[in-house]
Design a protein that fits this description.
Layout lengths: L12 E3 L6 E3 L3 E4 L4 H6 L11 E4 L4 E2 L3 E2 L8 E3 L1 E7 L15 E8 L2 E2 H10 L4 H4 L5 E2 L4 E2 H4 L6 E6 L2 E7 L7 H9 L9 E3 L7 E2 L5 E6 L3 E7 L1
Protein name: Fumarylacetoacetate hydrolase family protein
Keywords: Hydrolase, Metal-binding
GO molecular function: acetylpyruvate hydrolase activity; metal ion binding
Length: 228
Amino acid sequence: MPGYVIEAPKPVTAPVAGTEDRFPVRRIYCVGRNYAAHAIEMGHDPDREEPFFFQKNPDNLDFSGNFPYPPKSDDVHHEIELVVALKSGGRDIASTDALDLVYGYAVGLDMTRRDLQGAMKKAGRPWEIGKAFEHSLPCSQIVPATGTGHPDKGRIALEVNGTLRQDGDLNQLIWKVPEIISYLSAYFELAAGDLILTGTPSGVGPVARGDRLRGTIDGVGSLDVTVI
């Protein structure tokens, strides 16, 4: 049996509510500007234009409750998001069948080096330097859909040091979860272990060392993170 020429990296897994078993993570897709108010605050038209996606890396996930302020940036922003975890996949999935692929849901933070992202936008370059850095995806445990159902409405909110910063509702998603899965499956072959971040409501803003963040999504759970 052949071995590896270097030590193999450990698989990335996420905790699951109600069990000691873990959810193995394959890929992470993120939907950009999927709440109308956030699209406006970022200077874009909130009409139902075609959705677009970027990716984070599985090892960007962090379940520690701490967010180390990253290097090379002086403007790091919080973005609270509903995370969708898939138990199966495929290509060209109909939106009417899409929720059959979902294992469960979590609360996530798409932490963003906004200054570096802005520089990449201006230069017409990819966003990864602003989005896919170490610890850039603090996340809660995954709650199986057998317990939550498939939330299509409910408050999504983020407080920083006890002050409300982001406040929206899942029913404000421009592209709903079944549509996101269906659209994405036309361009990528989805599979068990994929995570999808569904977008953030308005109110994104900077964090500083020592800040305490608390994100909540009705029916899904909460996430507490300290910036260190």
